[in-house]
Design brief:
Layout lengths: L1 H20 L1 H4 L11 E7 L2 E6 H7 L2 H4 L10 E4 L3 E10 L2 E12 L13 H4 L5 E20 L3 E22 L6 E24 L4 E10 L4 E11 L1
Antiparallel strand pairs: 1-4, 1-10, 2-3, 2-10, 4-5, 5-6, 6-7, 7-8, 8-9, 9-10
Length: 233
């Protein structure tokens, strides 16, 4: 899967070069010049990540997943309690490079039932709890093939993403509620993956805009939908 995505990213960049050569004949002349400008993207509570529980389990080490129960790997989960910040540069009016950092993506399906297990108090069922978070470092190229009236733009993007996951397992002990929790396993994983995406950008002033988009990440087959603000220098 990783090889396929990296090949796709390479094909996307070749396509970008081909379209860039035709830029003057395919785009409306811009009033808001982008070329040579730095920009910043930022978001909080507007990045929505969705993933399949089983895909997450396959990527985590055995010392973490060996303690999971069957109910904890069915269905899908999502997270929006995170924030991101990016810095980029417009090589041309219709082509930009960007580095993006997203922090505190919670892989929270592992602990869902730890706090909703009402019968645990009756059965004295001391279940393990989990604390798993992911940070992402992304480098991508953004190409704008079409613009409408100098304000609306369609874009496609592709690039690489480094995923850093910190996972901890806590065992519950004691005879009273709340139980005493002891750290029994932990792991830090760093993995390289690919990303592809598309979106719509609205520039409501020469310096300000907003991006609405979708990205797919090869690692854990993560789907991301987002709204990002953009400020240009």
């Amino acid at each position: 899967m990783k090889q396929v995505l990296l090949t796709s990213v390479g094909s996307l960049l070749l396509t970008i070069n081909s379209f860039s050569a035709l830029g003057n004949s395919t785009q409306i002349e811009q009033t808001h010049t982008m070329e040579g400008r730095y920009f910043f993207n930022f978001a909080a509570l507007t990045n929505h990540f969705e993933y399949e529980n089983d895909d997450v389990r396959k990527k985590l080490p055995d010392k973490i997943t060996s303690r999971l129960k069957d109910y904890q790997v069915t269905g899908n989960e999502s997270d929006y309690i995170n924030y991101s910040f990016a810095m980029g540069y417009y090589l041309q009016d219709n082509l930009a490079l960007r580095f993006n950092y997203t922090a505190d993506i919670e892989i929270d399906f592992l602990g869902d039932f730890d706090f909703l297990c009402f019968d645990c108090f009756v059965k004295d069922d001391k279940r393990d709890s989990y604390d798993i978070e992911m940070d992402m470092y992304e480098f991508d190229a953004i190409y704008y093939p079409y613009q409408y009236q100098d304000t609306w733009s369609v874009y496609v993007l592709g690039g690489l993403a480094v995923h850093k996951i910190d996972a901890k397992v806590y065992e519950s002990k004691g005879d009273t509620v709340p139980y005493i929790q002891t750290n029994v396993a932990q792991s830090t994983e760093v993995t390289l993956g690919g990303k592809l995406g598309f979106g719509l950008q609205y520039d409501f002033s020469p310096n300000w805009g907003v991006k609405l988009g979708y990205s797919y990440f090869s690692y854990m087959s993560i789907d991301k939908t987002y709204i990002n603000w953009e400020y240009r220098l």
